[in-house]
Structures are given as C-alpha cells and as structure tokens.
Amino acid sequence: MAQLEAILFDVDGTLAETERDGHRVAFNMAFAAEGLDWEWSESLYGKLLAVTGGKERIRRYIDQYLNDFHYDGDLDEMIKALHLSKNGYYAQLVEQGKISLRPGVERLINEARAQNIRLAIATTTSMENVTNLLTGTLGKESIEWFELIAAGDIVPAKKPAPDIYFYTLEKMQLAAENCIAIEDSSNGIRSSRAADLTTLITPSIYTMDDDFSEAALIVETLDSGDVTVDTLRQLLDN
Question: Would you say residue 1 lies in a domain?
Fold first, then answer.
C-alpha cells in the first residue's frame, strides 16, 4: 500500500499566478530596457507558454514572430542576457508584493510540514525565480522547508519531458508511488505522469483549457477544492 511521503510542487501557475502578472511583465520590462520594441500581450504570452523555459520562449518568439529580425552578435548570448535581465525585474515585482501565492498553497505547505511530509520543487523556471518567490511570499526561512529545489537547467530536457521529476525522485531516494505532484498545465502533467507520479491539477489562468485527462484530481484552487494532506493520501490509495 502506497504511503504519502512527499509532495512535489511545480512553481509557475501552481504556487502563484506568476506568468501573466510576473514573468510576462518582467519580460516586457527587460525588452524595453534594451531598447527593443517587443511587447508580449496577455494573449501572445499565452501562446508562447506552449514552450517551457524563458530562454526557449524568447527563441520561439524570434523564430516565429520576428521574420525581419537580425542580430549581428551571438544570439544565444543576447537571449541569455535578456533572460537574466528579466529575472531581475521579476525579483523586483515579487519584492514589491505584486505577486502572491494562490489560495490554499501556504496552508497546504504548513499542514504538510506539521505532518512531516517531505517537500520539493520541480520546475523549469530558474533557481533565482524560485527563491525570490518563496522568500518574497513565505519568508527567507521557507527555502529550508523544501528538501530539494530542482529548477532551471539542472536537467537537459525541460517539461513535458519527465527528466526534472526523475532527477527529484532519484536525489530524494523516493518511489514515485509514494509521492504526489501538484501541477497546473498540460506540459506539467505530461512530465509528471511520464514519471509515474499521481498528479493533482489546479489550473492557472493560462491553462484552463489544457488536457488534464490523466489527473487524479482537478480543483480550481487548493482552497476551493478543500485539498488537505488526507486528500492527497486518498489519491494515492485510489
């Protein structure tokens, strides 16, 4: 019989609605600072979210939407610099309190900690973005609440590939059958399910119409679904 040992959290869209009000805004700030006339609207950014990873998203935008764009230097280095700049602006937005955790997230984390359930992060966003969000919403000590933060380019293939979850399970010496993944997108659940993880879905603003047919449970938010540690234990038993 499976025993709930750990909860593995995605970040963007799952812990907080970071995409529309955080990353998108920060990308636009970085573009403007570099004198680029690029503007990612809410609808365009929704399309770009089909690609996981910020640097990869910039590359897709250039390839798909900027047919006349030409850069004389090293394009990869330009993209890296833009992404680094974006992360700085994102940190500012978090510090200014413009990004908050989704309903029920803090409650579930605290409940899991009280019951000695191990916690981890498994995300495609950068380590800097994760730590900025956690410290900006839960306090500096919250970094220590998560046994492992697997983020960014720590694995070669990003979601929907399962690599980040395989890495997390291996590092924590956990069996997939004893863990729950919490995700918000089709790319996320494709990744978690490919790693044989039971997955709870809480759709974000941009993922309402995604395919979640493999989810063990779908709730609007962790609060509206009244998700508790016992709820997650029951999902493993089903």
Answer: no
